[in-house]
Amino acid sequence: MQNLYKKKIASLISFFTLNKKLGDRILTYHSINNKKNFTTSNIYQLEKDLFYNQVKLLINKKVNFELIDNFQNNKTNYLLTFDDGFKNLKDKILEFLSNHKIPCLLFLCPDLIKSNNKNYLNLSDVKEISKNEFIKIGSHAYTHQKLTDHNDLNLNFQLESSKKWLEDITSKKVNAISYPFGAFNKKVLEKVKLFGYKYGFTTKFNFYDSSHDSKLQIPRVDIWDSDDLNTFTNKINGKWNWMRFFSKY
Q1: Which tens digit of pLDDT belongs to each residue from 147-162?
Q2: Is pTM beyond 0.70 here?
Q3: What are the beta bridge partners of residue 218?
């Protein structure tokens, strides 16, 4: 399904979907930039003003921002996550969040960090960012490839080496992973647990219920480039959660 077609159909169905109150909202972002580029699909390149307005809406609603380790069962928790580690996050985005004391979770690939590609955070950036108390770093595997495509040896490398590399350069524990392209299976989950990950984040579109959902199969709410405040509000109200039924993994 093409992105434009997907968004139009999704908007129509969501209009007739009821709100959902229960569950933690874990939001998925990628690149925050005003000019489209070829680093990722256009749907994952959100303009800065849209991002700022979305976060300000949450601030005005006085939602409970937390890292997942600190989720409070008696509250609806919100966590902002960013996949891939784009350089533009360092351009005021992370500073904006820190100034508002909003924690976030960045999922990084060592291979992209070491690539010296100007579109991604580099080694110096990651070391600097890791010192910020509001920013936690997780793994996005060693290279940005589907974990389900690897044999045992390569899968071990993707999971174990990425975790160790990130821990070595940040001097902090890495206990979370976002599965590249949302791809995982039984073998991946077994390996993730084996190598000491506590949390595994998927691309399944839903709210997170810590009392029922597996910590290694955590659903998230995908944020797209065209999400104005009305669409964003509908998403955090659960009107788009029906999309979980179309998740491949």
Answers
A1: 999 999 999 999 999 9
A2: yes
A3: 201
